[in-house]
Amino acid sequence: MAQYMFIELRYLKPVLIWMVYTLFAIGIFCVLWSVLPERKLYDWYSSDNNFVDEFEWDNIYMTIILLLSAILNCLVILLTTFVRRICTK
């Protein structure tokens, strides 16, 4: 077994995989932050709830982006796991 500074590489593999998934989550969040139309979402949300305060809207918008990025990151993890299982058969 290959060892590096008393740590076996087989123990580092899951850590590196989750670091890549974390980078995917950060990338998805940044893309959603730059792509989502904030004004249209605000108009849609405020049409049902009348007036929305600016600070309240910032929290709502951040929650929307975080939830979408978490869902998309879960889909990326499931897709890569599915592809890896198919390729190893």
Throw out a few tags for this protein.
89 residues; mainly alpha; two-stranded antiparallel sheet; 3 helices; membrane; transmembrane helix
Describe, in plain words, how this protein is organized in 3D.
- The protein has 89 residues and is mainly alpha-helical.
- Helices cover 83% and strands 4% of the residues.
- It has one domain (7-88).
- A two-stranded antiparallel ribbon has the order 1-2.
- Helix 1 packs across helix 3.
- The two termini are 24 Å apart.
Tally of strands: 2
User: In this structure, how is the largest beta sheet organized?
Assistant: 2 strands, antiparallel
**Low-pLDDT windows of residues:** none
Q: In which order are the strands of the major sheet placed?
A: 1-2
Radius of gyration from the CA trace? 19 Å
Mean of residue pLDDT? 84
Q: How many individual helices? A: 3
Q: What is the first-to-last residue Cα distance?
A: 24 Å
What is the N-to-C succession of helices and strands?
EEHHH
When the domains are counted, the total is 1
Helix content: over 70%
Structural class: mainly alpha
Quaternary organisation of the protein chains:
single chain
Shape: elongated
Q: Strand content of the residues, in percent? A: under 5%
Keywords: Membrane, Transmembrane, Transmembrane helix
Topology:
Layout: E1 3-4, E2 7-8, H1 9-35, H2 38-49, H3 54-88
Report a brief summary of the structure.
Keywords: Membrane, Transmembrane, Transmembrane helix. The protein has three helices and two strands; from the N terminus they run ββααα.
